[in-house]
Amino acid sequence: MKTTIRKAEDRGFANHGWLQANHSFSFANYYNPENMQFGALRVLNDDIIAPSMGFGTHPHDNMEIITIPFSGVLKHRDSMANEWLEVKPNEVQVMSAGTGLQHSEINGSAKDYLSLFQIWIMPKERSVKPRYDQKTFSAEARKNKLQVLVESMDSDNPESLKIHQDAQISRIDLSEGESFQYNLNNPSNGVYVMTISGKHIINDSELNSRDAMEISETDSFTTMAKEDSELLFIEVPMT
C-alpha cells in the first residue's frame, strides 16, 4: 500500500476577507508543482464564506463539480435554470459542466457563515450535456457504516448522485474506538481520505481534523477512530 499524508496546515491558504479558502491541491494563486492532483481528483477546496457573500456568475466546462455544505446554507443558480436553489448540511450537490455553463454560488444567510467542501473531478467523457442534481443524506445512515454519496453514471444505485467518472465519494461517522475497513471498487483506483473532524489512525499514522491521506496500490485499508470522527472517502481512477 502506498500512502502520503497531507497535513491540514500544509494546504494552500487564501484570505480574501469574505472568503477563507484552504486548497488541498494547486488552485488559483496557490501553486505547488508536486501537489497538482490525486488521480482524477483535481480540486478539494475547504471554504468558509461570509454572510451574503459568494462567487458571482462564472463559467465551467468539462468538470464534475461536487459541493458538500457542513454549516449554513448555500444558494446556487446556473444557466440551466433561473431560480435560486438552496443546498444545506446533509445535502450534496453535483454539477456536470460538460460542454459549458455559467453559475453563481452565494451564502444564503445574512448573518451566518457558510462552510463547505467543493470537489472537482475530471470526467472520463468530455463535452457531455450539462446537468445538475442534489440529494439529502441522513446523518443516521452513516453512523459507523459507509454512506455512498456520489457514484458513476453506470451505477444503478438509486440512493446516490451520479457523475461522469468511475469514482465514488462516501462518508462515515465513526464512534470512538470503532474500526472500519474500506474496500476499493477497483484496486487500480486510489482513495483520498479527508478527515472532516476528529482523530483516527490509518496504517499506524494518526490523522486529525482536516488532515488527509492519499492511498493507492491496495484493494482495502482500515481506519480506527481514536475519538468520534467524520471521514470523507474520495475514490478515483489514478490514470
TrEMBL record:
Domain Pirin N-terminal, first and last residues per copy: 11-121
Origin superkingdom: Bacteria
CDD domains the record matches: cupin_Yhhw_N (cd02910)
Domain Quercetin 2,3-dioxygenase C-terminal cupin, first and last residues per copy: 152-236
Family matches, as Gene3D superfamilies: Jelly Rolls
Family that this chain belongs to: Belongs to the pirin family.
Protein name: Pirin family protein
Native organism: Winogradskyella maritima
